[in-house]
Design a protein that fits this description.
Elements lengths: L4 E2 L17 E2 L8 E6 L2 E10 L2 E4 L11 E5 L12 E10 L13 E6 L28 E6 L13 E8 L1 H4 L13 E6 L14 E4 L3 E9 L11 E4 L4 H10 L7
Antiparallel strand pairs: 1-13, 2-10, 3-4, 3-6, 4-5, 5-8, 6-7, 7-8, 9-10, 9-12, 10-11, 11-14, 12-13, 13-14
């Protein structure tokens, strides 16, 4: 990505290089909306179940993907099945029509899954997360939580779901010359980890920034090359700005594959 560091995992012999830094293991199934998006069985991005048939993630998560893509719901471990998992193939995916791969503007995507019964079975381990009901701003100093399987300090994907608390940063501060220097738009949210050196990273793209007592306010889009750079905090696509588009896609989709 141009001047930016997209946070999905590039599948290669060398593997991923960095990840959720300074997080902790989440309690099993405490984030029942989390989705592991996998390409040829390898985790590449996170996502959030927002409807029984629909997952919200980042548009940049599907760049020139080869091999089958699956959505795994109800997971805690990437390597060990606990009996709670539900695995789905993709029926269709819908990146925002104005997504720009260089600047990562409008970096948001809806993925529709399919199964014999057509939708996920909601239970204590698999639940949807709410999205904003209308357009609005996530105010500075809002306390949020993020979870993902991104790589950790040992430079490998985390086998267990990790979580991290973050605080939203004022957009003017985030866009100052000391920080992102104008690269952040009004359709984005900046948030810093607690502590500031803690941050999501590669493999965490597409995961939800959950604020306001359980509302997915953001979708992880990008960070700096060094995910621990306190002057380049992680940036999320602000979901509230896309509520009309989300409702339109979900309401009118025939489920056909976008590409």
């Amino acid at each position: 990505c141009f001047r930016l560091f997209c946070l999905f995992v590039f599948i290669s012999e060398g593997g991923a290089s960095v990840g959720i830094i300074g997080g902790k293991e989440a309690a099993k199934h405490s984030k029942p909306y989390m989705v592991s998006i996998r390409n040829s069985k390898s985790h590449i991005c996170g996502g959030a179940l927002i409807k029984e048939k629909w997952v919200l993630t980042a548009a940049h998560c599907f760049p020139n993907i080869n091999g089958p893509i699956t959505l795994v719901l109800g997971a805690h471990s990437l390597s060990r099945r606990l009996g709670s998992e539900q695995v789905f193939k993709i029926k269709g995916y819908f990146p925002h029509p104005e997504f720009k791969s260089l600047s990562l503007e409008n970096d948001i995507m809806l993925v529709k899954h399919t199964q014999l019964d057509g939708k996920a079975k909601l239970n204590k381990d698999v639940k949807t997360v709410a999205i904003p009901k209308k357009k609005g701003i996530t105010a500075a100093n809002t306390k949020c939580n993020f979870a993902g399987w991104g790589t950790t300090e040992d430079k490998k994907l985390s086998d267990k779901l990790q979580e991290l608390n973050l605080t939203v940063i004022d957009i003017r501060k985030c866009n100052s010359t000391k920080f992102w220097n104008g690269e952040v738009t009004k359709e984005m949210i900046c948030a810093e980890g607690q502590p500031k050196t803690a941050a999501p990273c590669r493999g965490d793209s597409g995961g939800p920034l959950v604020c306001h007592k359980g509302v997915a306010a953001g979708v992880l889009s990008f960070s700096a090359g060094d995910c621990k750079d306190v002057f380049k905090p992680p940036v999320f696509t602000a979901v509230a700005n896309y509520v009309p588009w989300i409702n339109k896609i979900i309401g009118h989709s025939s489920g056909s594959t976008h590409k």
